[in-house]
């Protein structure tokens, strides 16, 4: 079995080392991104919820970029929320700004009781575009 093809962003935060996981794993033309939280570089949570969600998306974009992808390449999203009812409006506002226009990726939101000190986490699966295809493969 081949070794895992791990992907890390250029300025990776401390949580990858503290919790011993890869930011993402490349498998063929798919990228499986670990849950990204709104952590600062030292691994501590962003204290304001909406800012934490924005930082989680920024951390996600950094991982996607390191693999040669963008949010346009995301096909499946799972988000985790510690208080979905109270947090939904803020998450939807950030999501609308980050994800953009249709067609949207699949999305599953899950309410949880614990996220290691965080209140929001986002994990995705993305298709890694080949070097010779156009940037918008969905138009085909």
UniProtKB/TrEMBL annotation:
Q: Name one GO molecular function term.
A: deaminase activity
Pfam families recorded for this chain? Ribonuc_L-PSP (PF01042)
CDD domains in the cross-refs: YjgH_like
Q: GO CC terms on record?
A: cytosol
Look up the domain of life of the source.
Answer: Bacteria
- Gene3D superfamilies linked: RutC-like (3.30.1330.40)
The identity of this protein, by name, is RutC family protein YjgH
């Amino acid at each position: 079995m081949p070794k895992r093809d791990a992907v890390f962003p250029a300025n990776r935060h401390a949580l990858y080392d503290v919790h011993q996981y890869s930011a993402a794993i490349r498998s063929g033309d798919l990228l499986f991104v670990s849950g990204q939280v709104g952590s600062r570089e030292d691994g501590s949570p962003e204290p304001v919820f909406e800012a934490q969600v924005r930082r989680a998306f920024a951390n996600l974009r950094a991982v996607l970029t390191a693999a040669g992808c963008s949010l346009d390449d995301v096909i499946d999203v799972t988000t985790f929320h510690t208080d979905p009812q109270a947090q939904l409006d803020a998450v939807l506002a950030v999501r609308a700004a980050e994800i953009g226009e249709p067609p949207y990726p699949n999305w599953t939101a899950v309410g949880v009781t614990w996220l290691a000190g965080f209140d929001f986490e986002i994990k995705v699966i993305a298709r890694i575009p080949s070097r010779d295809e156009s940037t918008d493969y969905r138009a085909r």
